[in-house]
Amino acid sequence: MSLETVEHALAEFYCNQNVEVHKILLDFQNSVDAWNLVWNMLDTSKPHEIQFFGATTLHIKITKQWLQLKRTDYMLLRDKILDTLIKYYNSSGPANVINKLCYCLCAYVVRTVPNHWPDAIPQLMETFRNSLSQSSINVSVMILEILMALPDEFGATTLIQTRRNEVRRELQQSSLQVLSIVDSILQSDSLDPIVVHALKCAASWLDIGFDLIKCHQLTDTFISVILNPERSQVCVILAIDALKSLCTHPRTSVCEATVFEVLSKVIILSDKLFNLEITEEPNVVVDKLFDLFLGIGDQHFRPIVQGLLNNNTRELCTKYFNLYLTCTNAPGYYPVNENYSEKTFTFWFLLQDDLLSNDAGPDNSLLTIVKPLYVSLTQVLLKKVAYPENLESWTPDERELFRCYRQDISDTFTYCYFILQSEMLDVLLTIYKQVTCDRETAISQWQTVEACLYAFTAIAEPLQNHDSHPHIKQLMSSLGSLPYEQIDQKAAVAAMDTIGAYYYWMETNPSYLDLIVPLLMMGLHNSNMFSSASIALRDIAKECRQSIAPYNDVILNTSMIALKQVKKLKEELRLMYTIGVILSAMPFPKCKPSLDMFINPSLEVITSILAIEENAEFIKNRSLLQNRIRVLSSLVSAIDQKHTVYHIIETTTPLLHMTAVKYFISSPEDILYAVVCEFLKTIVSKLQEDGSLALNVIIEILMIGFRKSPQPAGMILFKEIVIMFGRQNVYIPIIKSTYEEICMRVKCMFEQVSPADQFSLGDVMESYLSLQGHIFRKWPFIAVDNPNVDFTFVFKLASEALCANEIFLAKTATFFLTAFISTSREKRSLFKVIEDNGQFLVMKIICIIKGDVVKTNLDIMCEVLLMLNKKYSDNLRRWFHDIVTVQNIVLPNVTEDMKSKFFKRVLKEKSNKKALQGAVREFSFICRGLIQIDPETES
């Protein structure tokens, strides 16, 4: 490809971004000729667009196609990059081209140190000092840009581990020299542009690794930049970033004394944080400073905590803890005018986890020191979790962030409880009583009322492990006196949530149901409180089936009224589930009238819809029919009484059968069929081991829809039937015949589509392979003894699915294949399937390895490869040889010796899945060009 062609294509691409032109440019970048032509494109007289494309192409060649280059050309390439870069600097070329050339040079260094270019970094600095004709400012900027790019390029380059360690060692050996240069620049009166480059360079090299004892004096330098009022905000922010890199690198933990010396210097910056004020928008510098201190807390967590016990470090560590509390207590509301406080939540979790760890012991003296801090934290969180007055004026995104923030605070309340135990309950109850002492105070300070109730709700689960709850008795007693009609609805909803959170407590304190049940019934009549009240009622009904029995009639009557007013389907489903729980606690003769009272309205609606003859009119009511079936399904899911379930089966299955005959459609996405199958699946799960009453009709309804169009819902329902009844001899004939028909119809469905379109039926494929996998793992006799099932088709379908981009489909294929291969050795018919088609599966495995499929499938596929190696090792060796050697399937970027070593390594691993995954992943990354190695070095 000529240079003129490339330049013309580039001009065309910038005009209209034509796809064909884009392909021409990609072909050029992949060609060997590009190594030579890029230098013409990088001529300083060329247009800017051509120069940048040339620099980009050169970077791609070095990072992605290094193996195209001969070793004899390494030095020539280095000299050309250096000469070109110096020319661009001397002529003040475009900044983005110079930047890209810097990364080209750094990519070259990463590829060649130390074997081909020892002492690369000192040589680079000396070369540019001697070659640049510009002022010392440009010399400094130039060197800093290259040095800054080198760690970035190293981090972005994928190398095999041994090679990565070699390069890292080379960089670490130069880090002290580089950081010394940076330090001298920052201590001078350099201009802000040079300081910016120096700080970026420092942050990059500090990430590589360093000796803290030798570099900790940089702390003073960075702090001086931060505190210098003449430096720009950009310099200050970059200095904080660099200081964070220094203070939080994992290697800094080696010398504890030096760590505390550095921290004692850094704490000076905290003075900027202790007197914050509410601002219109979060302060960027303050945000960065909090990041710095929180990063230090994460990295040096143990020394700081233990430092509380040391007289020499206690004051410093205490100041750090107070700083975290200050951060949590940042003035304003998150996220509107502060975004700092949420950053501390991880620290509070780590602290309580550390204090309560097994080695801390019950007499942990740290607990005594830290408890007052957690008391203050509890009080701060009550303030931060409270709703603002102007919440309605916030944007939807801000309200959603605040909702998530409150959830984080809920978790942090739990950590506080783990530390404080009853002391936290004292704090919460004291504040709660203060704001609910009279109606007017509760109404005016509803935010605090809501916050206290929210906190009590948050700690309800850990409280479940304690026998005595005197605080909860006081709390529950007070809920009845809240002015629900006048207080803000958020506080009223919080009261319902609190009742629901302590559902377990009601079981041991049934006398309080006299107070609680009327409150919940009131909540069911209030549209704002309905959701929380219905959740609370559901949980209490499940936990307190016996003790709530005296209230069954009032609950059922109120629920019937509430159901007529409910507008949302999910709320109706929840309430119907609760009704099912209540009815399950009643003997069938007694509960039958109530049961009919709740199911008859849905049955009447279904009957009236089924009576519609006009198709267009029925389509209008189709969603209503689906919803009524969902409502019945929710009721059944809560019932565990056999006679009650049988009564529902008797009343619903005739209608469902009529629905199937009249209204199931030939579509792979018949929602009505899916809803009916879900209802029947719920029924099947309740039949226990007695399916005589309903199994035949359930399978008949299932197959009516499945014959029209195989759907996942039908196979999910059939899988439930197999799991429940597959081992009972009386049901085996109908299960086998149904299984056979399902297999035949799925095969027919896939035969009618082209191989390229098979993945459009991914949901069907996944549910089918899941069904097959469960059968082969649980009751293989259902499948193995069925001569009319084409297992070759199933095996090949699973082999294809292993290459799917959808991760769940690939996992399901693995689930089936491992079960099938494991079983096949014992069954001649299955053994023949593997013998005849195993090479097809191995071909798919090799396609995954060599990069034809997304790399996320690699680890999943290894389970299949391991099972093949366990059961068919000799076959696997032969299949590998036939595919790679006889069929000569190309594995890119690897030599014959590398292939041989890889296959030997694979065949060696028959039990260690992790070792196999590591070998496959590394080899695949080499094939995909994600890892590039020198074949001569490898061999």
Automatic annotation (TrEMBL):
Domain of life assignment: Eukaryota
GO biological process, one term: protein import into nucleus
Assembly information from the UniProt record: Interacts with UBC9, RAN, RBM8A, eIF-1A and PAX6.
Statement: the UniProt record of this protein carries the keyword Membrane: no
Family named by the database record: Belongs to the importin beta family.
Entry's localization field: Nucleus
Gene Ontology CC entries for this record: cytoplasm; nucleus
Domain Importin N-terminal, first and last residues per copy: 21-87
Protein name per its UniProtKB record: Importin-13
GO molecular function terms attached to this record: small GTPase binding
Keywords (A to Z) from UniProt: Nucleus, Repeat, Transport
A Pfam entry, by short name: IBN_N
Keyword Lipoprotein belongs to the record: no
